[in-house]
Amino acid sequence: MASRQAAALLTSRSPDKPASALHVCVVGAGLAGLACAAAAAAAGSCVEVIDERSALATHPTHVNVVPNLLRDLVALGVGADCVKAGFPYRAIRVMDARGRNCCELPTPRLAPVGYPEALGMAHGELVGILAKAAQDRGARLFWETRVEGLGWNMGRATLTLSDGREITPDLTVLASGALSPLRDAVLQIRTAPVCLGHEWTYTHSPRPHGFDHASLVLDSGGQRAFIVPTSPSTIGIALTSGDASRPVPPVLQPLLARLAPDTPRVVRPLLAGFLQAPWHRGNLICVGECAHTLPPHFGQSAAQAVEDAIVLQQLLAQGLSPAAVAERFSERRHARAQIVYELVTQAARAQLSPNEETDLRALFLRLSRLVAESA
Ligand SMILES: Cc1cc2nc3c(=O)[nH]c(=O)nc-3n(C[C@H](O)[C@H](O)[C@H](O)COP(=O)(O)OP(=O)(O)OC[C@H]3O[C@@H](n4cnc5c(N)ncnc54)[C@H](O)[C@@H]3O)c2cc1C
C-alpha cells in the first residue's frame, strides 16, 4: 500500500491539473522547506520532502519569534503549538555592556488576540512543530536522500535522487540552503553569500530567576549579544565571538559563568546574500536561505522563510498552474524580501563598525513598519 502511494506520488501529473492536486517536491527539510511543505500540504497538494540529512537538525540554537513571524506561524496553523513550546516576551531591551538600558525596541502584537507579541523558542522545537504539521497534512519526508542532479524536461525540473529514482514533480521548491550548488546549476548563476566579518556563537543556558524579557547587549566596540527566554527553564544566547582581547561585557559575565565547559554550542559565520530576480525557473522556485540569506539581526531570517511559505500556500490555493505559481511567487517575494535584506544587512554592518550615522532603532522601526503588513 505504502509503495503504491509512493509510486502514485512520484508519477508525473499534467501541468494543467488544479493546484490542489499538484505533486510538490520540496528539496531540503530546514525551517524554510518544512514551512513550505506544511503550507503546500494545507493547500491540498501532494507533498514530499527530500533531505540528505538523517533527521531533523538539532542544534542548541533559538529562534526569536518576532511579531510578524508569530503572525505567520498562526496563519500556518502552528501558532498555538509554538506558544506552548516557547516563552512569550514583550519588547526588546537594548542595553550597554554594563547593563544600563539604552532604549526599548517595541514588539507590536501582529498575531490575533489571545497570542503574545513575540516569543523565544528552541530552534529544534520550531522545526519539529513544522515537520509534524507537514506530516499531519499528508506530506512525506524522505531522509538520507540526496538530490544529485536537476535536469529539464519540457520546462519542468527533473530530479535525480541518490536512491536511484528520477522524479518530475509538478512544482519543485528548492529549500536547499544558503550554499546550494543546486540553485546555481538550476538558475545558471554563480552566487554565494558573503561573510560580513565575524561569527556568532549560539547556546542554551539555564534561565536565571526573573529573566522574562529579550535583551540586546551592545558594547561600544561592536560586540553584541542577544538573549531570549526560550522556555520556563532555559534561555537562548547568541553572541558575537568578537575580539578575544576585549573583555566580555560585564552584564554577560554572570550568564556565561553559568555555562559548563561542555555545554553544546554552535558557531555560525555572519552571512549575507540575496538572489537577484527571478527566483524561479519553469516550475521551480527558490525559498528560504537559498534565495535570501539574512544576518540574524532583527530576527527576520526565519520570519522571511515562513513568509515564503505563506505566499506559496496562497498561490497554490488559487488553483494556478505550477508555472504561474512559480512566476507569481517570484514577483511577490523578491521586492519585499530585498528591502528586508537591505535593512537587516545595514544593521549588521553598522554593528560591526559602529558609526554615528546609523541609527539602529530607526532601522528597526522602518523594518517593523514594513513587515507589519502581511506579505
Ligand atoms: C545556528 C543557527 C541559528 C539560527 N538562529 C536564528 C534566529 O535566531 N532567528 C532567525 O530568524 N533565524 C535563525 N536562523 C536561521 C534560520 O534557521 C534559517 O533562516 C532557516 O533555517 C532557513 O534556512 P533554510 O531552511 O532555507 O536552509 P537550511 O536550514 O540550511 O536547510 C537546508 C536543507 O537542505 C538540505 N539539502 C541541501 N542540499 C541538498 C540536496 N542536494 N539534497 C537533499 N537535501 C539537501 C540540507 O541538508 C538542509 O537540511 C538560524 C540558523 C542557524 C543554523
Explain what the structure shows.
The protein is an alpha+beta fold and 375 residues long. It folds into 2 domains: 2-58 and 124-193 and 274-356, FAD/NAD(P)-binding domain, CATH 3.50.50.60; 62-122 and 194-271, 2-Layer Sandwich (D-Amino Acid Oxidase, Chain A, domain 2), CATH 3.30.9. Helix content is 33%, strand content 27%. It has 10 helices and 20 strands. It has helices at residues 2-10, 31-42, 67-75, 79-85, 123-136, 181-187, 253-257, 300-317, 322-352, 360-372, and strands at residues 23-27, 46-50, 62-65, 87-89, 92-95, 101-105, 118-122, 140-142, 147-153, 156-161, 166-167, 171-174, 194-206, 214-218, 224-231, 234-240, 265-274, 280-281, 284-286, 292-293. The chain has an 8-stranded mixed beta sheet with strand order 6-5-14-15-16-13-17-20. A 6-stranded mixed beta sheet has the order 8-2-1-12-19-18, with helices on both faces. The protein has a 3-stranded antiparallel beta sheet with strand order 3-7-4. α2 (31-42) packs parallel to α5, α2 runs parallel beside α8 and α9 (322-352) runs antiparallel to α10. 45% of the residues are buried. The model is unreliable at 1-19 (pLDDT under 50). The site of flavin-adenine dinucleotide has 36 residues, from α2, β3, β17 and α8.
